[in-house]
Please model this.
Amino acid sequence: NAGVTQTPKFQVLKTGQSMTLQCAQDMNHEYMSWYRQDPGMGLRLIHYSVGAGITDQGEVPNGYNVSRSTTEDFPLRLLSAAPSQTSVYFCASRRLPGELFFGEGSRLTVL
Amino acid sequence: QQQVKQSPQSLIVQKGGISIINCAYENTAFDYFPWYQQFPGKGPALLIAIRPDVSEKKEGRFTISFNKSAKQFSLHIMDSQPGDSATYFCAATYNTPLVFGKGTRLSVIA
Model:
């Protein structure tokens, strides 16, 4: 039972480059979300989706795009990476409110 | 605007002692208060949760105490063990995306 799978686990980008963080879940959860974790800042919501074709912004959406074409996948796109986007990114899904299942994270460094 | 305030930022406890982490919230509409545990290099995982219709919930060595009038809730870890060393996050929701506290790094030393 894979749960929530994130790829890649580690990535180094140069300023201005673009990339996509992949997230897939096999629990048939309608709700999926992306958080970033920075030291002393906790977990901050970037974007979330309540089902295929529906996305919404969280607390820190600037610089990130998402789409949700299937129930299983929720990719996070960085169009033009900036050093401020250096962080650990977590994808999570849920069946019930408050009961999130997190992936193991993607550590991104932007030089 | 931070809706859930968590303290302390870090905590060192002797093995066998009691670890206490506190959280305060502002939005009285919140109706579900989970705690998440995160080990280094891993994603957070749901540890225990409470709804505001009860004042306490216990699961093994972990207990949530909830004070609705004060808009506060806390996590107590009894008989703390080195394996409990992790970062703990409180959170709150009312069928909205979870709002997390900033986390508490707990170190249990022998």
